[in-house]
Amino acid sequence: MAIEKKKFAIDEKVERLCSACDTESEHSVMTVTKLGQITKLMCDVCSTVSTFKSGVKTSVGMTTKAGSPYDRTRKYRKGQAMMHSTFGQGEVTAVIEPQKIDVLFGDQVRRLIHAQA
Ligand SMILES: [Zn+2]
Asked: What is the strand order of the sheet 68-69 is part of?
């Protein structure tokens, strides 16, 4: 039995989480594949364009927020978001030692220091 997937059409409106607005907002479908899968969306609120690759779902969690810039003197907790100047948006996945944290950037975990007075 074939799995039925919803097909989308250009200019269709869909509710998607906008990473710029940080909320579910209405998006316009800009481009779709032959199979009707969305490849490009534009947020109607802030005009941010998001692209999708088939089969690749970016792990945008419910709690994802644009983190404040990474600061090694700051103490981080698990689940905290940050913006790293080199690696971009990240989220603390674990506190390894009092001064070491694992942070997930995209699909890569990097070990950073924190709480460095
Ligand atoms: Zn937006």
From this structure: 68-69, 81-84, 88-97, 100-105, 108-113
Measured from the Cβ of residue 43, the count of other Cβ atoms closer than 10 Å reads 20
Parts of the chain with a pLDDT under 70: 1-4, 53-66
Can you give the length of the chain in residues? 117
- What pLDDT does residue 5 have? 72
Task: Read off the pTM.
Answer: 0.45
Distance of CA 74 from the midpoint of ligand 1 (Å): 29
How many separate domains does the chain show? 2
Tell me, in angstroms, the distance from the centre of ligand 1 to residue 76's CA. Answer: 27
Distance of CA 87 to the CA centre of its chain: 13
Ligand 1 centroid–CA 80 distance in Å is 22
Domain coverage including residue 109: 68-113
Measure 14 CA to ligand 1 centroid, in angstroms. Answer: 12
- Residue 26 alpha carbon to ligand 1 centre in Å: 8
Question: Regarding beta strands 81-84 and 68-69, do their DSSP bridges make them parallel or antiparallel, or are they unpaired?
Answer: parallel
Has residue 77 been placed in a domain? yes
